[in-house]
Amino acid sequence: MLFCRVRAASFHATEQSIGNVKAHGENYLDPIKLQYNVDENGKYKISYIANTGSYEAYLLNSDLRELWRTPYAARNELQTDTEYLTAGTYYFKIRGWSWSKYKFNISKVNLQTTAIKKIKSRKKKTAEVKFKYVEGVDGYQIRYSTNKNFKGKVKTKSFEYTTYSHPKYLVTTLKKLKRHKNYYVQMRTFEKTYSGNYYYSDWSKTKKVKVK
Predict the structure, then answer these.
(1) Residues 24, 97: contact at Cβ < 8 Å?
(2) What is the CATH number of domain 116-210?
(3) Cα separations (Å) of 189 from 81, 123, 163, 175?
């Protein structure tokens, strides 16, 4: 079993850690472990560079299970990768050679949200929503309510959408709405991981429509 020297400082996901691995020869088996705290679920970008020397790094969860590893960090080249992380404590385990200098940063990636272009009620009890297509996301979620602050009864509708084309706008239809009522509508994008977790963007600006 390998034991890691735990660096005393604890970093949040918006902060950067810089230092020397100072590991070579038999010290290669005594890696440094940096603690990072992730405050909220989301998609995170991992940035890393070896200013001198070279090293390997591993991202571990709170149970010290490996989630990710660097292919190899060397030659003063900034490299990036992305991972979906839930809120909690994580560790970077770093093993290096020749007094390597490391630099790490974890930062939250805000998913690009969509924007509602317009809403029309063309038929009774329905509303047609035209919204901006966002490349790279897995789908969209729409919420609507008769309360402009989205309090009380709020309905949501989610749908996945992938295409090889790049349309400027997409259209979805809300059904079974109450007649002659004002509805307030917002949308957001989401990405879905292989484990089935969903990560969402911020909500779009609110649009209002009066239903026929």
Answers:
(1) yes
(2) 2.60.40.10
(3) 21, 27, 15, 21
**SS3 label, residue 13:** coil
Radius of gyration of the chain (CA): 23
Q: Is the pTM of this model over 0.70?
A: yes
* Angstrom distance (rounded) from CA 138 to CA 192: 6
Give the pair of three-digit tokens for residue 103: 């630099």
Give the pairing of strands 88-109 and 16-20: antiparallel
What is the Cα–Cα distance from 209 to 129, expressed in whole angstroms? 10
| Contact between residue 199 and residue 169 where contact means Cβ atoms under 8 Å apart | no
Domain spans in the chain, listed from the N-terminal domain onward: 5-109, 116-210
What's the pLDDT at 138? 93
In angstroms, rounded to a whole number, what is the distance separating the alpha carbons of residues 191 and 198? Answer: 6
Q: Would you put residue 123 in left (φ > 0), alpha (ψ -120 to 50) or beta? A: beta
Q: Which of 17-21, 42-46, 206-210 has the highest mean pLDDT?
A: 206-210
The token duo for 15 is: 């902060």
Q: Which stretches of the chain are DSSP H helices?
A: none
Q: How many CA atoms lie within 13 A of 93 on its CB side?
A: 18
Q: How much helix, strand and coil, in percent to the nearest 5, is found in the chain?
A: 0, 60, 40
Specify the CATH number of the domain 5-109.
2.60.120.380
Tokens of 191: 């990405």
